[in-house]
Design a protein that fits this description.
- By secondary structure, the protein is an alpha/beta fold.
- The chain has a single domain (4-240), classed as TIM Barrel (Alpha-Beta Barrel).
- Helix content is 40%, strand content 16%.
- Strand 2, helix 3 (59-78) and strand 3 form a beta-alpha-beta unit.
- The structure holds pyridoxal-5'-phosphate (PLP).
- Pyridoxal-5'-phosphate binds next to strand 8 and helix 9.
Amino acid sequence: MQTIKERYQAVQQRIADAADRVGSDASKIHMVAVTKHASVDEVRQLVDLGHADFGENRLQHFTQLAAQIEEYADRRKELGEPALVNPIRWHFIGHLQRNKCRRVLPLTRLIHTLDSLRLAEEIQEIAEKRKQVIEVLLQINISKERQKTGIAPAAIGYLLEQLETMSCVKPRGMMCMAPIAENPEDSRAVFTRCSELFEEMKLDKNSGGAFNILSMGMSNDFEVAIECGANIVRVGTALFGENAVPQETPTEA
Ligand SMILES: *Cc1c(COP(=O)(O)O)cnc(C)c1O
């Protein structure tokens, strides 16, 4: 059985190889380790290896894990161990319901799943009170038939225009998911289309100067995504395996 460290190194090597094939700079490609099947201990091991970017799609697991990792970082400090190389950056990658925003926003560095104007308005309202700017990616629905959430390509321009008027919601780029397929090559058409839209929107005056993140590709197809221009890939299974960890009972009262 491979250790987490071996799997981590293998994923990084595959990222570097894919970047090489298309002449991109591997250091500009960020891997978000998706923790939905990870135990706290496995996440700690990645933290110890210096990994900084973690993503979750379920609020409950997200808040628990973030608290446990923060505690771990504090304990290391108390024990006089070297501080973490990188401060942890949490990414929210699940469908975000408006009534959950209040809990997600304080923890999150980047929300990958902005999929409606109403959600943007909710984020704006909460972020304004917190005097915080929230960075978001527009989740694009390229393969309409398989997926319910995400913005239709034709609606992106209008949404960006609306975001211009919201001082606390900052669009940083786009995210998409390909339909689940055995063959990673099946994702190429979706990723290519998303990448084209991304390049178009980058030039749009409403996207702002920092519209430069393209999040696509998961364990099965991240190499294809990188070949199509992704600079964030979201990898779970290739790092942590397939098995769901038993949910710990929340200890909070
Ligand atoms: C679970 C998940 C991933 C990671 O998927 P793997 O196939 O386990 O790598 C990436 N993105 C989103 C939105 C997810 O929900």
